[in-house]
Structures are given as structure tokens and as C-alpha cells.
């Protein structure tokens, strides 16, 4: 099993100079990739802009994003992602998510009562068709495309799309249509159970998710975190003490990763809970903690 680590920034926004320092520090330290998250109504850098900037400053680092495709025109999204994959030389990694449920998010995305999961599946099917070079004939309540040919195709064939989520419907969707799963806010034991549920869902439709394609986003703290840093985690999972999935310190982070590996996961996005002043130093600390586990 190939264990790989990407690193994401904390929840705050990165300026352009910080984004460059972030990307260059991870590349110099030897991490497999960087990972950005899409927060549509928050004042943070759009992940596609951030990845484009990182693509121009690195030549090996994989460039990943949790992307909310809802609210984006599927044709233009397919073109943008294909061109980003071209620009980066085939280094783009993608996880589609339905959002984080922030106030005003549904309004900003223009969902108008539509079920998020249904819209995500529709968008995913459309972008995959254009990436495959197909001429798309499609009509729904949201979009109409009349024999529309692709404007760009990615370097990767196929350009994989992983999905997130932890509820029963989300895990079933991963098994039915996704290329992989990137979970979040799950303990190692919960993640192992989710992995089994995904493969069972895949089996029901006559497919299997690649066993190498299961990952976890892991928030970490170098020292015991202040309560305010745990606030958003607690809101999203009020049923569990946030410290159940937030490792602390080098040994704590390493132990957590090893527990996830024992549960069958091998791809990790680690991100600090607290803001980072110097990414070169943070990358060195992280590298000392876990990079020898990368295979």
C-alpha cells in the first residue's frame, strides 16, 4: 500500500506570497502534495486560483482540492479543471464535496431547494463526459446542453474524482460512482467502518473502489489546542469530542496516521488547526513527524 501525504493550510486565507511559501516549502521537504479546500462564502482564496499559482511555482508537487462543484457551470468547470491539469502537467487531484453548510451557502450556490447530492452527481457525470471527449446532449431542470463538444481535455486519462462525506447516502454514492474517498472528522475506527460500507455499496453495483484510494483529512495541533480552535469541528460533529480525531504533537500525529493505515487508509491530508507563521519551519516539523511513513 502506497502511503502519501499532502498538506493543507489552516482554515484562514493564504495571501499570494504565503501560498507560494506554502507550496515551495512542501515541495522542498518532500511531501507528495498540497491540498486546498473550497469554502464558497468565506473570504478565502478560491482553490482553483491557489492551485494555478502553485502549479507555476512547483514542478513535482501534486495539487489537490476539495472542490464544491455546486453553483458552477458544469461545462466551464470541466474546461477549467482540464486546463489546470494541462497547466500543471497532469498533477491535479480532485475531491468533490457538497459544501460545509455555512450560513448563506445554499443561497450563494443557487441551489433553490435542490438536493445537494443529486446536483453533485449530475455535475460529475457531465464533466466526466467532456473530459472523455464526448459531445454532450443533456437536459434537466438545471442545465441544457445541446450537442456541446468539450473545450479542453485533461492530461490524465481519466482525471479521477474522489468524493467525501460520512453519512450513509454519501458513502453509498462513493461506492456507486467515485474513484476514491477522502473522509474527514472521523476517528480511525469510524473510517475503517466507512471504508467497508463504501466497498459494500460498490459491490452492489458490480464495481470496486481501488483499495489504494481511501484517504483522510487529519487536523492536528503541535500543542494542546485552545478551545476556540476546536469550535468549528464541534459544530460539524456535536456528537463527538473533537479531540477524538485531532492528534496533538509529533507522536500523537504519527500514532493517528498508523491507526488509519491499520484501518485500510493510505492517503492523507494533514492540516494545522492554528495559523502558521513560517511554512518552511512547519513543513520541517511535519516532515520529522511523519514523512518517513511515506512510501
- Which residues sit in consecutive blocks of at least 5 with pLDDT less than 50? none
Please tally the β strands and state the result. 10
Percentage of residues in DSSP E strands: 15-25%
Main sheet strand line-up: 7-4-3-2-1-10-9-8
Q: Given the structure, what is the number of helices?
A: 10
Ends distance = 8 Å
What is the arithmetic mean of pLDDT? 95
Structure characterization notes:
- The chain is α/β, with parallel strands linked by helices.
- Helix content is 40%, strand content 16%.
- The strands form 2 sheets. The chain has an 8-stranded parallel sheet.
- Helix 3 packs across helix 5 (116-131).
In terms of topology, how is this protein built?
Elements: E1 4-7, H1 16-29, E2 33-37, H2 47-57, E3 62-67, H3 74-87, E4 92-96, H4 105-109, H5 116-131, E5 136-139, E6 144-148, E7 162-163, H6 168-177, E8 181-184, H7 188-204, E9 214-220, H8 231-236, H9 249-262, E10 267-272, H10 279-290
Parallel strand pairs: 1-2, 1-10, 2-3, 3-4, 4-7, 8-9, 9-10
Antiparallel strand pairs: 5-6
Give me a quick take on this structure.
This protein has 295 residues and is of the alpha/beta class.
Which features characterize this protein?
single chain; 295 residues; alpha/beta; eight-stranded parallel sheet; two-stranded antiparallel ribbon; 40% helix
Amino acid at each position: 500500500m502506497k502511503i502519501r501525504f499532502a498538506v493543507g493550510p489552516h482554515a484562514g486565507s493564504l495571501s499570494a506570497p504565503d501560498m507560494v511559501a506554502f507550496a515551495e516549502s512542501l515541495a522542498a521537504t518532500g511531501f507528495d502534495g498540497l491540498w486546498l479546500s473550497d469554502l464558497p462564502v468565506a473570504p478565502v482564496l478560491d482553490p482553483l486560483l491557489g492551485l494555478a499559482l502553485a502549479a507555476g511555482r512547483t514542478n513535482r508537487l501534486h495539487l489537490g482540492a476539495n472542490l464544491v462543484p455546486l453553483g458552477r457551470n458544469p461545462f466551464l468547470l470541466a474546461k477549467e479543471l482540464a486546463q489546470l491539469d494541462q497547466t500543471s502537467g497532469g498533477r491535479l487531484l480532485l475531491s468533490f464535496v457538497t459544501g460545509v453548510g455555512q450560513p448563506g451557502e445554499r443561497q450563494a450556490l443557487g441551489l433553490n431547494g435542490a438536493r445537494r447530492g443529486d446536483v453533485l452527481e449530475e455535475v460529475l457525470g457531465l464533466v466526466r463526459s467532456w473530459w472523455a471527449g464526448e459531445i454532450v446532449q443533456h437536459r434537466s431542470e438545471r442545465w441544457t446542453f445541446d450537442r456541446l463538444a468539450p473545450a479542453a481535455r485533461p492530461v490524465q486519462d481519466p482525471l479521477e474524482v474522489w468524493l467525501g462525506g460520512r453519512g450513509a447516502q454519501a458513502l453509498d454514492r462513493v461506492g456507486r460512482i467515485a474513484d476514491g474517498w477522502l473522509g474527514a472528522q472521523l476517528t480511525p475506527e469510524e473510517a475503517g467502518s466507512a471504508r467497508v460500507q463504501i466497498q459494500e455499496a460498490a459491490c452492489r453495483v458490480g464495481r470496486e473502489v481501488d483499495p489504494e484510494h481511501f484517504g483522510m483529512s487529519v487536523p492536528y495541533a503541535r500543542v494542546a489546542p485552545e478551545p476556540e480552535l476546536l469550535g468549528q469541528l464541534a459544530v460539524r460533529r456535536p456528537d463527538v469530542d473533537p479531540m477524538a480525531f485531532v492528534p496533538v504533537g509529533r507522536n500523537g500525529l504519527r500514532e493517528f496516521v498508523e491507526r488509519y493505515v491499520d484501518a485500510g487508509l493510505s492517503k492523507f491530508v494533514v492540516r494545522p488547526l492554528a495559523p502558521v507563521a513560517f511554512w518552511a519551519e512547519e513543513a520541517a516539523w511535519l516532515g520529522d513527524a511523519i514523512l518517513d511513513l511515506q512510501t
